[in-house]
Amino acid sequence: MSGFIEGVERNQITLFPERLEDWICEDNPVRIVDVFVDALDLAECGFERTSPAQTGRPG
């Protein structure tokens, strides 16, 4: 059954918090990079498969 995605075990300890946003303060310069990358049109830059499949999975 290749389409099945198994969930995470509830007792599993994670290395990072649920969101990296919890570790990055509001005035961190990495936020500028994040905004810049989000504004790029990846398909126009030559990257293929920038849109996810119908199942929501990336190419």
Topology:
Blueprint: H1 30-39
Protein name: Transposase InsH N-terminal domain-containing protein
Name its key features.
17% helix; 1 helix; 59 residues; mainly alpha; flat; single chain
Describe it for me?
It comes from Falsiruegeria litorea R37. The chain has 59 residues and is mainly α. It is built from one helix and no strands. The protein is flat. It starts with 29 loop residues before the first helix and ends in a 20-residue tail after the last helix. 0% of the residues are buried.
Average residue-wise pLDDT: 79
Q: In the residues, how many domains can be counted?
A: 1
How far apart, in Å, are the first and last alpha carbons? 19 Å
**Parts with pLDDT < 50 across at least 5 consecutive residues:** none
Task: Tell me the radius of gyration.
Answer: 17 Å
- Specify the number of helices: 1
Q: Report the count of strand segments.
A: 0
H and E order: H
Shape: flat
Main sheet record = none
Proportion in β-strands = under 5%
SSE class: mainly alpha
**Helix-residue proportion:** 10-25%
Protein name: Transposase InsH N-terminal domain-containing protein
Organism: Falsiruegeria litorea R37
